[in-house]
Amino acid sequence: MANVVIIGTQWGDEGKGKVVDLLTRYADYIVRFQGGNNAGHTLVVEGKKYIFHLIPSGILYPDKKCLIGNGVVLDPGVLLKEMTDLAAAGLPVNPDRLTISERAHLIMPYHNRLDNNMEAATKQGAKIGTTGRGIGPCYGDKITRQGIKVGDLLDDALFREKLTENLKEKNFLFASKYNTATFSFEEIYAIFQQYAEKLAPYIGNVSVELDRARKAGRHILFEGAQGTQLDIDHGTYPFVTSSNTIAGNACTGSGFGPSHIDAVIGILKAYTTRVGEGPFPSELFDQTGEALQQKGAEFGATTGRKRRCGWLDCIVANEAVRLNGITGLAITKLDVLSGQSNLKIATAYEEGGKRLTAMPGNIRQVERLKPVYEELVGWQEELCDIRSIDDLPSATRAYIKRIEEITETPVAILSVGPGREQTLLLKNPFA
Fold this sequence. Notes:
By secondary structure, the chain is α/β, with parallel strands linked by helices. The chain folds into two domains: 3-96 and 205-425, Adenylosuccinate Synthetase, Chain A, domain 1, CATH 3.40.440; 105-202, Orthogonal Bundle (Adenylosuccinate Synthetase, subunit A, domain 2), CATH 1.10.300. The protein contains twelve helices and 20 strands. Helix 3 (109-121) packs across helix 4 (135-143). The radius of gyration is 22 Å and the shape is globular.
């Protein structure tokens, strides 16, 4: 038995879905524990692309059980569309394959509108770059104890009561503050009655199910969304998501005891990217940045937005190792660096004449950071057909070794292409 957490070490988009897909073959249960449909995992299996926003990536294996934990905020319409798309692809989702926590919170239609209204009302330069999916307002209602939970769909009187009270406040905001249309109770209620009917068989107690699985000696894989620098507490606040993205939330977001976690795999892209607004010390604004963006097909899986690209930032990587207790790294997109004569790794920051080796908590200070680079020789060879670390160019192996030295963390997985077969498993955390 082993219980493993997969998290992103940067600003998301590191390739977590591909690594989860790889390790799922060794797991029995795959758990999503935070975020909502603002996240996206892209997988390429036998040449076919799959993009998931809510359902754990492990759903591509018909003999695995997927669970959506209480830490997730769930848009039922998005979830049901994913289920419909999977069925059309010959992968029907039934209650034997998916359980949704009764304690997860529902994204309501007014959350999406609030999200967009709040962003539109924010002055230029202070905008967050939200996906507009209603994630932040939903988590906001959860924290202020106004949220509607998935389990409330099964109690009609309770759902009606909560919806009525929420609409009083939300419609006041729409009419008085944002000067936009209000919502009708009847329209929302009718839609969510249909959702309740369709989702009722999937709703259950994820914490209890996980505890039974653990006691039965099953392997459990926890699948994070976004990345460490987007964590609401430890990221580049306020340019972050609205949930805790670090490994500790695998426990609180699913109801699983922390003493039962055996390994944490941090996904580290071989360079750095960021979507949306916010500081990005190692960002490149030249042809190299453009080349990485083009070769890496760096577009957000959720929004399609062009990702900003830069050199690998090992201050960010070390933050992730410390915050998550990472036991092994999975380096992705090594193949994108092929063709670069020289590579750079940020090993420190300079700000105000001082050298820093940790990300400051003050966002204005973060915006002023200048990276201090260490330069390495690049490689010209393409890596897509390589299936053994021994066959990698010497410069590639030197790059990997330097990352291990700086982060003081061994590399467990290497990815040399988008396909399922283009992954080198050096150390299996489930073994």
